[in-house]
Amino acid sequence: MPSPPQLRYPWWLIGFVAILGGFLAWKLWHKTSPHLPSRPRVFATASKLIPVAAPVTQTFVPSQPVDPKPLPDFPKPPPIHARAAILVDAADGQVLYAHNPDLELPMASCTKIMTALVFCERVPDNAIIVASKRAASTPQSSMHLKVGERLTAHDLLRALLLRSANDGAVAAAEKAAGSVEAFVALMNQKAAELGCTHTHFMNPHGLTQKGHYTTARDLATIARAAMKVPRIREVVGLTKAVIQRSIDKHDVVMQNHTHFVGHFPGADGIKTGWTVPAGHCFVGSDTRNGWELISVVLNCPHFVKDTEALMNYGFHNFEPHVLEAAGQPVGVCSVVHGVMPRIPVRTADRLEVVLPKKAHASLGLQMRLNPISAPVQPGEKVGEAIGLVNGVPVVQVPLVAAFGDGVAVKELTKAPSSFWPPLLRDAAILALCLVSFRYVAGIGAFAKGARRRWSRLS
Questions:
Q1: Stated pTM of the model
Q2: What pLDDT is recorded for position 410?
Q3: CATH pick for 84-301 out of 3.40.630.30, 3.40.50.720, 3.40.710.10, 3.40.50.300
Q4: CA separation (Å) from 157 to 128, 163, 269, 276, 431?
Q5: Which of 317, 263, 268, 271 is nearest to 292 (CA)?
Q6: Where in the chain is the domain with CATH 2.60.410.10?
Q7: How far apart are the first and last CA of the chain?
Q8: Which residues cross the membrane (predicted)?
C-alpha cells in the first residue's frame, strides 16, 4: 500500500514563519505588559575643591532646611529694625540673612510685584486698557484715571510700579482676567506655583483687607520671579517715566518713590509699600559685577537705611561661586515608553553657592532625576540640580528637558499612537529581508551549478 504523500515546505518558508511568530509574540508582550517607571536616579559629580567657606543655618533650599552642624557661621549681620527681613541670592534664593522670615504680615503696595507679574504674563505691552468706573474710583495712591480713559499696557505698567497707582492695579486686573476677583484668583494660583505657602492675596493693590498677607521669604521668592521678566526689570530700574494717556494729558510723569534706585550703588528695584497696619515695606534689588541680591523688609521704620545695610553686608562679606550656568546641559534622563530612551536635561537657572570670602570648603553638584513618561514637553521639569558644600545640600535649581538635534524633545519622545501600524511595518521589513535572502541563496546555487557544468564541458 503506497504511503500518503508528504507535504514538503521549503526551509526558508518554515524559518520565516517561525521567526515572524516569535517576533509577533515579543511585540505583543512588549506593548501590553506594564512597564513601571524606574526609581529616581541620584548621582553626584566629583567634588570641586575651591577655596571658599560654607554657609550658615539660614542657607537652604526653600522648604528644605540644611543641617548647620558641619557648617561655620556667617559674618555678624548689621542691626535691622524691621519686624521681618531677609536677604537672598537672586539666582537661586540662597538665604544670606533672615529675621522672622516666615512671619505672616501685610505687605501694602509690595503686592503690586505679583500684580505686575501676572499682568505681564497675560497682557502684551501694546495692548490697550480702558479704565472702568471701578478702576477710576479706587482710593488713595492714584494716577487719577478717568472712566473710559485709554492707555497702553506699556504705560500702565509704569504707573503701577513707579507711582504705585491703585487705580492702575484695578485696571490691570480687569484687563488681564475680566474682573478683579478672577485676577486675585490668578495671583493666588501663581503664588502657589512659586511655592509661597504663607501668602494670600485679597486684592491687586495692597490696601488693607483681612486675609491679605505674605512673609519676607515668600515676597523674596515673588520678587525673584518678577525680576526675570524683562518688562518688569526695565520699569523698576527707572527713576521716572513719561507716559501717554488719552484724557489727563498733563499728569504723565511717573516718579519712582523707592528712594533707593538712583541713590545707592547698583540699586535696580524694586517696590515700596505703606499702610498704617503694614508700616513701611520695601523689596530691594542690587546688582554688582553681574551678581544680584534681593532684600525684603516688612514693617520697618528705616526701610531705606536697613536695605542699604543689608546690601552692603551681602556684597562686602560674600561672593558667589557658579556651579552650573543657566541652560547648561548637565546629563540625560530616562524616558518611559519613549522613542528616545534618554533625553538631555539642562539647568533652568544658574546654580551658584554664595559663601563668605577667604574661607575654604569643598563644593559639589548632585542631580536628582524623576521618572518621566513620553510625551515630554520642552522645558518640562524632570528633576533638580543640587549644590553641595562639604557634602551638605545648600541650594537647588530645577532641571528641565532640553532639545535634541534641533527637534523638540516632545517629538523625539512621543510614543506610537497605535499598535498595529508599526507592527505591520516591522513585519514587512523582516519579510523583505528573508525573501531577499532566499533569492540571493538561489542565485548563488545557480551560479555554482553553472560553473560546474562549464568545467565538465571544458
A1: 0.73
A2: 40
A3: 3.40.710.10
A4: 12, 10, 14, 25, 66
A5: 268
A6: 41-68+323-412
A7: 47
A8: 12-29, 427-447
Q: Cα-atom radius of gyration of the chain, to the nearest Å?
A: 32
Is residue 271 marked as binding?
yes
Q: What is the DSSP code (8-state) at residue 245?
A: -
- Residue range 41-58: mean pLDDT, rounded: 30
> Which of residues 289 and 15 earns the better pLDDT score?
289
Catalytic residue among 109, 141, 285, 295: 109
Contact 325, 347 (CB under 8 A): yes
**What is the tens place of the pLDDT at every residue in 354-403?**
999 887 888 888 989 887 888 888 888 889 999 998 888 888 889 998 85
Q: Are 349 and 325 in contact (CB under 8 A)?
A: no
Active site residue 38: no
In the DSSP assignment, the letter for residue 61 is: B
Percentage above 90 pLDDT, the chain: 54
Sheet strands (E) in 236-341: 240-242, 253-255, 267-275, 279-288, 291-298, 318-324, 329-336
- Span 328-334, average pLDDT: 86
Residue 51 confidence (pLDDT) above 80: no
Q: Which of 338, 363, 316 is nearest to 77 (CA)?
A: 316
Active site residue 295: no
Report the alpha-carbon distance of residue 249 to residue 39 in Å, rounded.
Answer: 63
305 counts as catalytic: no
Bond into 270 cis (ω within 30): yes
- CA–CA dist 189, 64 (Å, integer): 22
Check the CA dihedral 142-143-149-154 and report its sign.
negative
Which residues of the chain does CATH 3.40.710.10 include?
A: 84-301
Residues 6+ apart with CB under 8 A from 244: 151, 152, 155, 252
State the residue for C-alpha cell 532625576: 369
Catalytic residue chosen out of the listed positions 132, 141, 142, 164? 164
Cell numbers for 414: 512621543
Average pLDDT, the chain: 81
39 — pLDDT class (breaks 50, 70, 90) = very low
Over 90: is that where the pLDDT of 447 sits? no
Q: How far apart are CA 82 and CA 297, in angstroms?
A: 6
Q: How far, in whole angstroms, is CA 217 from its chain's centroid?
A: 18
